[in-house]
Specification:
Distance between the termini: 32 Å
Radius of gyration: 20 Å
Keywords: DNA-binding, Transcription, Transcription regulation
Oligomer: single chain
Number of strands: 2
Number of helices: 10
Number of domains: 2
GO molecular function, one term: DNA binding
Low-confidence stretches: 6-12, 21-25, 96-102, 194-200, 206-212
CATH class of the largest domain: Mainly Alpha
Strand content: under 5%
Shape: globular
Protein name: GntR family transcription regulator protein
Pfam family, one: GntR
Helix content: 55-70%
């Protein structure tokens, strides 16, 4: 039986990340990750009608075949569905889904992925404070401009209600780049959160309050940049360590949404 839309058909009002910031990755994957993240975190509510394919393709600055590839993947995962003559709608990603329904294998996968995330934060605690230290000693005007640009895009996305995690990562990558050590950059790239490989985890975490208090992240980024720009290496290292540690605390202190 064809599903009925849960709310009146109307274009959604939301914003997306600038995919052209990451040309090295397949654009279809980037479109998918943006839409996936927006759906499972509730940025695009269940029952919302997505904009037309033409509009979405323009928003993401991709071709329609690229967009359709991303939409097909979301459809296969049961996150969206189409109503003939009406449009494409967002499903409730976790409606009625309990831990019992997830099953022991899926629950084990969730716990493993949470463990992997915590392992990644532990590695970041080792690598990124030292990267900030070196960045403060070696940064160039171009490096400072790159970091400031990433933070400006983060702030702009925040104002628009857009997805933030790509801009967050861009700032950390810019800090790593300022070390002039490509191995540090490669290490950081290995830690970038890959939404497309974390479907089960995200469907579990969506039942929790947001893991990130955006205003706190924003202030921590600004402090790190301020110390790097001033060449205050020890302070930059301390600020980066505090930022990563706070990220771990925010994750562990999340509570089920009421």
């Amino acid at each position: 039986m064809m599903e009925k839309p849960a709310s009146p058909a109307r274009p959604a009002e939301f914003a997306f990340a600038d995919l052209q910031q990451s040309k090295s990755e397949r654009l279809a994957d980037k479109v998918y990750e943006n839409l996936f993240h927006a759906i499972v975190t509730g940025m695009i509510a269940a029952g919302t009608r997505l904009p037309s394919e033409n509009t979405l393709a323009q928003e993401f600055d991709v071709s329609r075949p690229v967009l359709r590839e991303a939409l097909d993947k979301l459809r296969e995962e049961g996150l969206i569905y189409s109503v003939r003559g009406s449009g494409t709608y967002v499903k409730d990603a976790v409606a009625g889904e309990t831990q019992e329904q997830l099953g022991s294998d899926a629950e084990r996968e969730v716990l493993e992925r949470i463990g992997q995330m915590l392992d990644g934060i532990e590695l970041r605690l080792i690598v990124e404070p030292e990267a900030a230290y070196l960045a403060a000693r070696r940064r160039t005007p171009a490096d400072i401009e790159r970091m400031r640009g990433a933070l400006d895009r983060f702030n702009e996305a925040l104002q628009k209600g857009a997805i933030l995690h790509y801009h967050d990562y861009a700032f950390h990558e810019a800090v790593a780049t300022a070390t002039c050590n490509p191995r540090i950059v490669d290490t950081l790239k290995s830690l970038e959160y890959d939404v497309s490989r974390s479907v089960t985890l995200m469907r579990f975490l969506v039942r929790f309050q947001p893991l990130v208090r955006v205003e706190a992240v924003q202030a921590e980024h600004e402090e790190i940049l301020r110390h790097i720009e001033a060449g205050a290496a020890t302070e930059a290292k301390r600020a980066m360590r505090n930022h990563i540690e706070h990220a771990r605390i925010r994750m562990l202190n999340s509570r089920p949404a009421r």
